[in-house]
Amino acid sequence: MKLEYLDYILVPLGMALMVFYHLWLLHRIIHRPSSTVVGLNAFNRRLWVQAMMEDSSKNGVLAVQTLRNNIMASTLLASTAIMLCSLIAVLMTSGTGERSVWFVFGDKSDRAFSIKFFSILVCFLVAFLLNVQSIRYYSHASILINVPFKKLMAVSSGGHSRGSLIINQDYVAATVNRGSYFWSLGLRAFYFSSPLFLWIFGPIPMLITCCVLVSLLYFLDLTFDSMDCSVGVADAEETEIRSLADNV
Question: What would the DSSP string read from start to end of 174-228?
């Protein structure tokens, strides 16, 4: 069998493994959120928003500083992603040279090399866009979380129609959670870039990286210490995530 055929077998196998794991993780987040880090964090962020908005005059600075730290984290990832996109674009437009010596096994043609670099470029572009969306939602939340909704509700309790436009804690919590979801997806795009980068050196390192990455993510995405969470918390998380999925 020619070495070029390894790319047609091992690369789809590795990517299918990554996609299958994340589909399984999505199913678990929706149906058993209390057993995943994403589900537990979403529920606790909702509680945090409620605690911050109980007394906005006292907790406003703390809330804004916390959201600002999240914005800085998203900005760092977005800047890194766009910088790596520029680097990959430069490598794609550079001369071929002796790039074939980089490969261990697999297709060594210039077309295959361009496909590999283009895949990494798309991955980093997706990471950049997702982190930009995360910055957007965190910026909105930093303003919404300081709105004195209790005072506004008391003023508008006389039956004015304008009261229906006043935000509540659930809306602010959903905004914060959306920012966190986009940040997590942007980080996943960085994870996906690891096997794609090692694909440059052949399909075998790429497949090995996919297997190792899925094994590590399994232990990072699940909360084995929280399997005994109460049914009430699990139901609240499930309602939270399903409502956000409908609104996104």
Answer: HHHHHHHHHHHHHHHHHHHHHHHHHGGG-HHHHHHHHHHHHHHHHHHHB-GGGTT
**Rounded to 5, what percent of the chain is helix, strand, coil?**
85, 0, 15
DSSP letter assigned to residue 4: T
Query: Which long-range contacts does 89-93 make (Cβ < 8 Å, 24+ apart)?
Result: 89/121, 91/117, 92/117, 92/118, 92/121
Place of tokens 């002796």: 98
Q: Is the pLDDT of residue 61 over 60?
A: yes
Structure tokens at 92: 């794609």
Q: Are the C-beta atoms of residues 184 and 177 closer than 8 Å to each other?
A: no
Q: Which pTM value belongs to this model?
A: 0.81
The set of residues, in sequence order, having a beta carbon less than 8 Å from that of 66 and lying 6+ positions away, is none
Residue-wise pLDDT tens digits, 192-236:
999 999 888 888 889 999 999 999 999 999 987 655 444 344 455
* Amino acid at residue number 224: F
Longest dimension (CA), the chain: 80
Q: Which residue has the higher pLDDT, 207 or 55?
A: 207
- The dihedral sign for the CA sequence 108, 11, 206, 184: positive
**124 in Cβ contact with 189 (< 8 Å):** yes
Sequence-ordered list of residues with C-beta below 8 angstroms from that of 110, at least 6 positions apart, any chain: 96
